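Tokens in:
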């Protein structure tokens, strides 16, 4: 029996969790209640009724973003009052920050209930006192600095750069800024002093048109790099490959969905990323990373249809929850996909349909 049937649910959805003993990453279904975070296994496209674990939120500490995993910028860390660490990864920055916001609010509420009189004094933000060249040195540090990689913008590949969001994440994680807003102000100051430079169209345009405080973009598609005067640090060679064009589109939607395998017909949680111009749908194995897709296809000429929840459609195997839809590609490959909720199913179908029309 699940003892938590009557507890109010603040939020629920897929997160990828790192195992305690074996440090592998597994997708789990998480349910946030006012005082704990419960997680369940998702087997064959259905949530286990049996709870796999719970994290009591009272006296927990949250670190968001947590940037010590090089290929996983969307992780946040929860540390319980007994010092047990839980590493959880969301499907997008928005999702990560929403989960972290709701968990933080629950922790604060538990604190307030515990001691009405305790008021925490926070130090005033000290952005203006930062020594900018020291911040640059920290960012440039080989071990704890910001990671440089190749990025594609509008079909061009840029090497040795990073996104605006990655800079903001790093400044918050390193506690050089308390909030994202403060981090943007600090990054704008670095930009103004020539300690960072714009790369590609989006960031150049923002610098040209914005006011002084908004010169820097907290955006995962706006690119920046270190000034040319700094020596190359472990530079990354730009590689152009077939997928560079596929992966160059603007990200329209990201989320965890269940996909039926083509051969074994088993259901697995995958991170789906929908891009436009050019319109492609890629999916990634969330236990690995979101850099190399496990598969994907162009949306041009695709047909997407919602499947009814009564009865099991032909071609579908296993114990399914519902919220099914089907995509038939131009090359007549059939993809069966399940969303966690009816609303998410409809949102994905609409977004994919839009992609099929905009790319034709």
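Residues out:
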């Amino acid at each position: 029996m699940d003892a938590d049937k009557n507890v109010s649910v603040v939020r629920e959805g897929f997160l990828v969790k790192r195992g305690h003993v074996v440090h592998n990453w597994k997708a789990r279904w998480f349910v946030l209640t006012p005082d704990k975070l419960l997680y369940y296994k998702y087997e064959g496209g259905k949530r286990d009724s049996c709870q796999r674990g719970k994290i009591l939120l009272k006296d927990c500490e949250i670190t968001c973003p947590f940037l010590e995993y090089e290929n996983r910028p969307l992780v946040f860390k929860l540390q319980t009052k007994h010092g047990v660490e839980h590493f959880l990864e969301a499907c997008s920055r928005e999702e990560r920050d929403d989960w972290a916001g709701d968990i933080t609010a629950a922790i604060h509420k538990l604190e307030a209930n515990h001691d009405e009189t305790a008021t925490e004094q926070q130090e005033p933000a000290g952005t203006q006192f930062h020594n900018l060249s020291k911040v640059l040195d920290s960012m440039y540090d080989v071990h704890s600095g910001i990671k440089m990689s190749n990025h594609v913008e509008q079909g061009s590949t840029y090497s040795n750069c990073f996104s605006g969001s990655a800079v903001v994440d790093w400044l918050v994680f390193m506690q050089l800024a308390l909030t994202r807003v403060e981090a943007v102000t600090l990054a704008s100051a670095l930009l103004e002093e020539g300690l960072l430079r714009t790369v590609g169209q989006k960031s150049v345009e923002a610098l040209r048109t914005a006011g002084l405080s908004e010169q820097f973009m907290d955006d995962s598609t706006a690119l920046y790099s270190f000034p040319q005067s700094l020596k190359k640090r472990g530079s990354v060679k730009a590689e152009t490959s077939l997928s560079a064009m596929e992966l160059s589109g603007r990200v329209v939607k990201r989320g965890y969905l269940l996909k039926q395998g083509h051969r074994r017909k088993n259901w697995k949680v995958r991170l789906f990323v929908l891009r436009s111009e050019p319109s492609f749908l890629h999916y990634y194995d969330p236990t690995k990373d979101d850099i190399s897709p496990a598969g994907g296809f162009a949306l041009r000429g695709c047909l997407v249809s919602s499947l009814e929840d009564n009865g099991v459609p032909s071609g579908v195997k296993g114990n399914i929850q519902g919220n099914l839809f089907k995509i038939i590609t131009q090359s007549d490959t059939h993809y069966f996909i399940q969303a966690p909720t009816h609303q998410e199913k409809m949102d994905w179908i609409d977004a994919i349909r839009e992609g099929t029309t905009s790319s034709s």
